[in-house]
Amino acid sequence: MSTFLGLIEELPAISVDSFSGKNLDSSVFFLSHCHVDHMNGLNNSFFEYLEKCNKYLYCSPISKLILQNTFSLNENCKIKEIYIDTPVVIEYDDKQGNNHIVVVISISAGHCPGSLMFLFQKQDKLVLYTGDFRINPNDFSKLRSLHVKQGYRLLPKKLDKIYLDTTFLNPEFSYLPSRKESIMKIHQAIKEWLDQDPRNVVMLECSACYGSEFLFMELSKSLNMKIHVRDHVYNTYCCITELAPHITNDFNSTPIHACTKKSDRSLKCRYDVSKENILIIVPSVLKWQGKDISKIAEWDEHRERTYNVCYSLHSSFNELKAFVKYFDPVEIFPCVCPKDQEKQIYDILNEIMNKSTDQILKTNKPLYQLRLSCCKTTKINTNENIYFSDDDSC
């Protein structure tokens, strides 16, 4: 759960992933992806405020589509699409009338549909905001906007600061299986269950409205069955070319359902199915804290016919360490930092930063210090698969 409050110290009058309180004084807004902890303050009043003040929100085409369907916005709303690896020059005035120019490049975050990282360049400062992300370390070199060519070599850019997704900056989550590995376990469990009895059905207990789309697509392809989803996300999904063939709003047409809220314990769309014929699959990570994650999946000890699968949209501890060491920034700000874990998180960051690969050569590089935050329906073609990361491509 993000604790970042939206204001980037190096970029006056820009807000990212927070849209209320002091953030409303900003001149430009960015949204990394459509998960609720990154959408604080996004409501109809906010979009009316943008219209009134002639301000803009920048996000990916898919995030714009989700926002338009969620808030019934028209095509002329103050949302500008930003495309992967395409620099955008933004000129704006802050509240004091000072003029600013910033160059922004978006990078696929591999988290959920439309999820982006933002690389901001302002004068001599280069700042990366990861939002929520998961990138396979083998693919770091494929993030072309984070590299510069030097002769025949491709070198990571020198980042002044990374605002980092530290969701699993915890040694208890050192390793997390790739999504492909997790989906293979889910596929096996579903196939075995459905083969046992023609009356059997499956509930996918997903934790958020959006975020499990790659899971839906891969299961649908491998099982040759569509996934029944909730009506309010179905309309959005139908506008995403890559996803539309794999979902349905007809609950009788498929035995695989992702149509319930996490708190539901029954399949409300199929009252004709007895609970003994329902297999519940829970793709999650938090249930695995302190457990042997190398097992990937196990039956729940307390809930009948419930299969827990380790499935992560965030980078593991080892993946985060690899990311920090690879890009070796001057400074890091943790975007997931609960008050009771502050010391632990900053101690870990200090340890990682002090062990950067060329640290010995950087005698003038400052020790990272604990610092407080600077303030508390158009069809979209996604054939290039740039938003739906499978851990092996960016």
> Low-confidence stretches at least 5 residues in length (pLDDT < 50)?
356-394
CATH topology of the largest domain: Metallo-beta-lactamase, Chain A
Write down the overall geometry: globular
Mean pLDDT equals 87
* Derived structural class: alpha/beta
Q: What proportion strand?
A: 15-25%
Q: Give the terminus-to-terminus CA distance.
A: 24 Å
Order of helices and strands: EEHEHEEEEEEEEHEHEHEEEEEHEH
Give the name of the CATH superfamily of the largest domain: Ribonuclease Z/Hydroxyacylglutathione hydrolase-like
Q: Tell me the number of helical segments per DSSP (H or I, 4 or more residues long).
A: 7
Rg estimate, integer Å: 22 Å
Please, how many domains? 2
| Biggest sheet record | 7 strands, mixed
Q: What is the number of beta strands?
A: 19
- CATH architecture type of the largest domain: 4-Layer Sandwich
Protein described:
By secondary structure, the chain is of the alpha/beta class. The chain folds into 2 domains: 14-172 and 315-353, Ribonuclease Z/Hydroxyacylglutathione hydrolase-like (Metallo-beta-lactamase, Chain A); 179-309, Rossmann fold, CATH 3.40.50.12650. The chain contains 7 helices and 19 strands. A 7-stranded mixed β-sheet has the order 14-13-15-12-16-18-17. Strand 7 and strand 8 form a beta hairpin. Helix 3 crosses helix 4 (213-223). The longest helix has 18 residues, at 179-196. The two termini are 24 Å apart. It is found in: Nucleus. Keywords: DNA damage, DNA recombination, DNA repair, Endonuclease, Exonuclease, Hydrolase, Nuclease, Nucleus. InterPro entries: DRMBL, RibonucZ/Hydroxyglut_hydro.
